[in-house]
Amino acid sequence: MKKAILIFTILFLLTSCTDKQINNQASEEPEASPENEISEEIKEEEPIKVSSLKDFTTEQSEKIRITKKDGDRILFDDYLASIEILSDIGASFSDNDYKTVRNSSNALYCDGFDDGYSKDLIKDNISEMEYMAFDDFSSPYNITKKSTNLVFDFNEYQYDVADIVYGYTAEDITLNCFVGRVSTSIFDVIVDPAYMYGMPVYHSGLSSGEYTVNGIKIKADTLNFTVSISNVPEISRDAFSNLGSDYVYAQITFDNIDCIYGITSGYTSTASIKSYKLLTEDTERVLTRAFLFDNTKDKDPEMVQVYNALMSNMDIINNDSTLGITLLDLDFDETPEVLVTRYSTDEGVDFGNVDNEVADVDIYRIENENLVYIDTLYNYHTIVYELGNFIGLKTLEDGSKAWFNMSYKNRDTGMTSDTDYLFTLDGNKLKFQEVFGTDGDGNYRYFGEPMVFTSETIVRGELGEEAVYSWGDYKQRFGPWAIVGIAKQDYCEDMRETSFNLYSDWLSHTETYTKSYKLSLTDRMMSYNIAYLVDSFYLGSYNSSKQYFEYIFLGDYAKPVIYLYPTVTTDVSVKIELQGRLDCTYPEYNDGWNVTANPDGTLINKADGREYSYLYWEGKGNAIWDLSKGFVVKGEDTIRFLQEKLEYLGLTSRELNEFIVYWLPLMKDNKYNLITFQTDIYENNARLHITPEPDSILRIFMAYKPLDNYIEIPEQQLSTFTRNGFSVIEWGGTEIK
Question: How far apart are CA 320 and CA 343, in angstroms?
Answer without folding.
Answer: 9
